[in-house]
Design a protein that fits this description.
Helix content: 40-55%
CATH architecture of the largest domain: 3-Layer(aba) Sandwich
Keywords: ATP-binding, Nucleotide-binding
Distance between the termini: 50 Å
Organism: Nitrosococcus halophilus (strain Nc4)
GO molecular function, one term: ATP hydrolysis activity
Pfam family, one: CbbQ_C
CATH class of the largest domain: Alpha Beta
Family: Belongs to the CbbQ/NirQ/NorQ/GpvN family.
Largest sheet: 5 strands, parallel
Number of domains: 2
Bound molecules: adenosine-5'-triphosphate, magnesium ion
Number of strands: 9
CATH superfamily of the largest domain: P-loop containing nucleotide triphosphate hydrolases
Number of helices: 12
Shape: elongated
CATH topology of the largest domain: Rossmann fold
Order of helices and strands: HHEHEHEEHEHEEEHEHHHHH
Length: about 270
């Protein structure tokens, strides 16, 4: 299997459009604009990029960034083997060579010296310097860089530099409206709309507590978990406690408040 085929998404991912993000993404891709997907955890960013890669017929290479990541983890490094040294491309280099969409998840976690390697790729140059190898590659015409960014999480110390931010167009993501979110939960779990809509209403109660004792609201991802358990025949109250309450907080008062919200509906 070629590199390109290996990263192609063969089956259509289920994605329910929320605003006009599909059209906006297609227009941005047409001019190969680097994009930033902004929004809280579990609101559909990863699912969206999988869907768009499928729709555009482009390979998708995803990299989960973390604070220990070095530029070499993105670009590549020399490896030792029986025949001596051998260069191995990193995921960003592979993406630039084969014309993939490269999705850097949580890029703000990476150190700044790692972040700057993407600069020449995200302006008119569209190049990537493999400094250790002494090679300058020009990105394939189909290549696009996409990063995700959760505005709530990081403290100011860990923000991206303006010179990085201002290389990207940005799409805002958030939890969808109640109707659309219920539709998503029903689709993902096989639950009836009515039960799905109850889960969404519980999430709305929880989301109102953001900033009042909770750092993050109940995500769409957690609602899918809850729905999956209920669809398996688990008592809805127990399912909600396990997926919508316990993961969010250890604070006994907050747990009581959330448990009470669950009891209103189940
Ligand atoms: N618009 C949507 N269409 C279809 N499914 C969705 C949508 N939004 C959320 N989901 C569901 O929510 C789940 C979580 O979404 P996803 O993994 O894309 O979140 P994320 O924004 O990438 O989160 P994180 O920032 O933690 O990576 C998906 O697996 C999917 O089941
Ligand atoms: Mg994600």
């Amino acid at each position: 299997m070629s590199d390109r085929e290996q990263f192609l998404i063969s089956e259509e991912p289920y994605y329910r459009e929320v605003h006009k993000e599909i059209e906006l993404y297609e227009a941005a891709y047409a001019v190969r604009m680097p994009l930033m997907l902004k929004g809280p955890t579990g609101c559909g960013k990863t699912r969206f990029i999988e869907y768009m890669a499928w729709k555009l017929g482009r390979p998708l290479i995803t990299v989960a960034c973390n604070e220990d990541m070095t530029a070499s983890d993105l670009i590549g490094r020399f490896l030792l083997d029986a025949n001596g040294t051998r260069w191995q491309d990193g995921p960003l280099t592979t993406a630039a060579r084969i014309g993939a969409i490269c999705y850097l998840d949580e890029v703000v976690e990476a150190r700044q010296d790692t972040t700057v390697v993407i600069h020449p790729l995200t302006d008119h140059r569209r190049t990537l310097l493999l400094d250790k190898k002494g090679e300058l590659i020009s990105a394939h015409p189909d290549f696009q860089l996409v990063i995700s960014y959760n505005p709530g999480y990081q403290n100011l110390m860990k923000d991206l530099k303006q010179s990085t931010k201002q290389r990207f167009g940005a799409l805002d993501f958030d939890y969808p409206s109640a109707d659309i979110e219920s539709e998503i939960i029903a689709h993902e779990t096989g639950l009836e709309q009515e039960a799905a809509s109850k889960l969404v209403q519980i999430a709305h109660r929880g989301r109102n507590l953001k900033g009042h004792g909770l750092d993050e609201g109940i995500s769409t991802r957690l609602l899918v978990y809850a729905g999956q358990l209920v669809a398996k025949g688990i008592d809805p109250k127990a399912a909600c406690q396990m997926t919508l309450v316990r993961p969010l907080t250890d604070d006994p008062d907050m747990r009581d408040t959330l448990d009470a919200a669950v009891s209103t509906f189940f």
